[in-house]
Amino acid sequence: MVVENSNQLKESSDFTYDREAEVKAFDDSKVGVKGLVDSGVSKIPRMFYTRKLEISESTASDSKLSIPIVDLKDIHINPAQRVEVIDQIRSACHEWGFFQVINHEIPIIVLDEMIDGICRFHEQDADVRKEFYTRDLKKKVSYYSNVRLFNGQGANWRDTFGFAIAPDPFNPDEVPQICRDIVIEYSQKIKNLGFTIFELLSEALGLNPSYLKEFGCAEGLFTLGHFYPTCPEPELTMGSTAHTDSTFMTLLLQDQLGGLQVLHEDKWVNVPPVHGALVVNIGDLLQVNILTLNIRQLNLLL
């Protein structure tokens, strides 16, 4: 049976399909989704079928809604501006759990070159990419397709290149030459920005600026460069299904193609790219930490 839309996915299942074998063959190829595209496939493997397409352009909510944009300009030299920014972040976290930051002191040219560098890595010949393909989470530099490929759920149509920044950073010599310089530069700058955001979040909680950093929120840092090759059957799969980030915080650098959506008051809202901006996503661990802190404060009042 040829599956033409998501409503037929259930009908297409049969007892002869061996997902485990298909997944293993795909993973053993070590060339990811890009390898499928390069091979000229016109039909995507069934392992990529997404049974419930939660997000699409047609289901996006009112375009008038947009996540807050916070301007960090002069926050280190202008106390009044810093107080205003902290208030904006507090409101954004409470109402959205997301916000974008601009004037964050990472030059746009660095952001653009980082996107280009990640693309250059993924667009290399398959034999070059294969050298970095691994599922060993202890590796400081890794290339793979879908971290949970074997969990039985529909795989995402994307490949990933990642590297550890903290607490045990990657060895520069382990990073491919094709993107080494920008990866090193971006890693340091994004790490510094992360410290700044944690300071602002701490103050937004009414705490000492160093609270979240001392708590350990900034100890681990890992950067992922996702790559979404053109899909021959985009109606059957997704680059990223609905999820929450299990981290303390995610700083997301978008390209200019768009596609990101966030859930706000039970509605999916598009997040159009803002050139030079970074999206801040409050992760599950930070939310748990905030909840625990609020409970402690409540106990003190009782």
From TrEMBL:
Keywords: Iron, Metal-binding, Oxidoreductase. One of its GO terms (molecular function) is metal ion binding. The keyword Iron applies. InterPro entries: DIOX_N, IPNS-like_FE2OG_OXY, IPNS-like_sf, Oxoglu/Fe-dep_dioxygenase_dom. Residues 217-302 form the Fe2OG dioxygenase domain. Its cofactor is Fe cation. This is 2OG-Fe(II) oxygenase family oxidoreductase. It comes from Medicago truncatula.
